[in-house]
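Task: encode each sequence below as structure tokens.

Item 1
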Amino acid sequence: MNPDKPIDIPPSLENGAAGTDLLATYWPSIIGLAIAVVLIGLWIWRARRDPERRSRRVRRGFLWWTPITIVLVGTLALGVNTWVGYLPSVSSVQRWLSDTPQRPVVVSNKKPVQGSGTTTLPTSERRVTTSTSGYSFLATIPSTAKDVPSSGAWVYLPPDYDKPGNDRRYPVIYAMHGSPGSAADWFAGGRIDVTLEELMKTGQFPHAIVVAPDLNAGPERRTTEPLNFPGGPQIEDYMVKDVVGWADKTLRTEPEANKRIIAGMSSGGFTSLVFALRYPEEFGSAISLLPYAKPYSKGIVGNPEAMRMNTPTHLLRELPRGTHQTFFIGQDDGESLRAAEVINRDLREHGLTTTLRTYPGLEHNWTAARTMMPYGLVWTAQQLGWDKPNS
């Protein structure tokens, strides 16, 4: 199979349109600017007609300029958000604001559904998935990693996951945010659950679970990349051991490497390359969006050994030939494209299945990540030969 052949995706997912509404356009900013112009015009008109003393005009001016300033600041914020693409819809705002973790719910009217290991998932009279819609929720994943507290993760369960009697297991997409970022990013800005359900409907991707953990080593956001820092937080251990282990124990996953995708954007995209190359026994595929060539965190750059062990080109030299992994690299046409070209070339020369797709005109933001992800998912499913959703 030619890894560089064109990738077809549903029209609804083109140009990052998945799960967006008016917030993804500049119309809210235009409307806000128009309101500000009207308010300023009214203030000027009132000021010219006001015969009162200057002190009273100043007080009234303050009363006028306070809402005008609020409108202008809000308009600027809406414009920046549209460009970044982080909150493209009202529902994404709701997810970003959500901070109440829930236990993984699997509903069965007959008996509890067992996860692998000994965990029994709670039962309820209310199903949370349907035959066409999955369920997204915020969970807490315990940590055993040094200097990394237990942290939140957004999780998506596919349609009919909790259908009574369903004991099917599912592949998993582990989605890592960039920096700055949080667990909500792939569900708020990335709209990964909406993207996945569209691809399931067209038969281009199987029913799957998504786990998107917080990789900041706590609310203080002590790091900028999810790596093991010498003498500091061991975020890589948390991701590879705790997050993956929690998913396999708590959810009905297929716990094999060829049923796991490690994905991310920006620092998450870079780290998806690092983790896939370091742990081929854990991750069979990587979807690396907007990556770069080398780590930049202060605690890594200042340590030659840590720098070497967290650089994809070095890890590739240590990877045994004959490893069956796939790598999708998505990049804009900016300054990082050259690094992506080198990484793609080196991966292919090592005998790995890889492709680099360039998306001209996009920036280093969530609009780009949301645009690229469906291509990465479809390509990966094709390369792995994964079954269609209803097979």
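Item 2
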Amino acid sequence: MEISGSSARQTRNRDHISIDIRHGDHLLASIRRKMETISCSHSICRVRENIRSTNEKAYIPDKVSIGPYHHGKQGLENMEEHKWRYIHALLSRKPNLEASLDGCLAALKEVEHKARACYEQEINVTDDEFLQMMLVDGCFIIELFLKYSIKSLRRRNDPVFTIPGMLFDLRSDLMLLENQIPLFILQRLFEVVPTPTECTQSFAKLAFHFFKYMIPGDPQIHQQKFSQEGNHLLDLICHCLLPTYPGVKGTSSDQKHFRCATGLQAAGIRIKGSRTKNLLDIKFARGVLEIPHVIIHQYTESLFRNLIALEHSSCDGVQHITSYVFLMKSLVGSDKDVKLLQKKDILTNYDVTEKEVATLFEKLCEGVDLNESCYGGLFDQVKGHKSTWTTWHLWSEEFKRSYRRKL
């Protein structure tokens, strides 16, 4: 009897231990999932209302929705159907389409909770609906990048490549803050989908090749900085625009109001195109203000607006793009300033007039707060230059009087 009782206790003990282990595994998985979700929380945010209200269309996709925020929106149905053609083309490159599909879904299930946590707004869809959305949108983007890089993959009647302007519209849509899926979703899918033998590039290189003509600045510089690290596609673009050297903090309380280009030239400051090709590397030395070349086109406003919105959704507080836009707003006060910068090979505008360029940067700053300019030190250097101090003081007083009159 004792032996039997002992055996029974051992059985109970073994049962108890096995239950504890199961609870332990569940707890471990729960803790791991929580750490993963916290580490990437809210990298894909809604545009803040004070920014959105100035031009709502700049933040809404025109041709294709990516991710949950604009999923199912009216007017985007045609591209939803086209996504399924692209996913079929991608997954059927190997004979067993079902195996390719199973591999993709298995890979996505591993990171589903992490992906959901990337979105600031709660996504009220089932797990299956969310996984399907990530699968279809992710495969569409991968196949789009592949077809763009490898012409032999394109079909003759593909509207993406036959309708004029469609590619540019899709690029613009894929650079919207609210129109993103996590980069790790794209990378995970790229690892398991059957890519064609002609493709020898990484996903990051395919992405850069697709976007490079839309990103302001030198493509060679951008390619060096375009990497596998980032939260989503817009974040990759933002990273490759960052300055190569840190900005210098200013001491002046007013770092937003720089003098216009023609005014600086009249005050004795020489303005020239910079040898550096990084867009944000603006510097001042020995009376010379060097500004890198920038191309302005019909998609520039939307890109800058979404980059600014991205900066304002971040917790690190560094506002590189916002600082650049505020500086350009001051430099380009009129079409005369635009023409001067054109002459200096600093500015080229396509599809937009000089007057539209002059108002572009002013519109970009509406509703936007600049806490501390990355060009504060530059502002102080220019203001303190001996040839400009007197004229700067006179201009500053006139600006303040004009501002008070508007109030």
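Check on item 2: Confidence is low (pLDDT under 50) at residues 1-22. DSSP finds 19 helices and five strands in the chain.
End of task.
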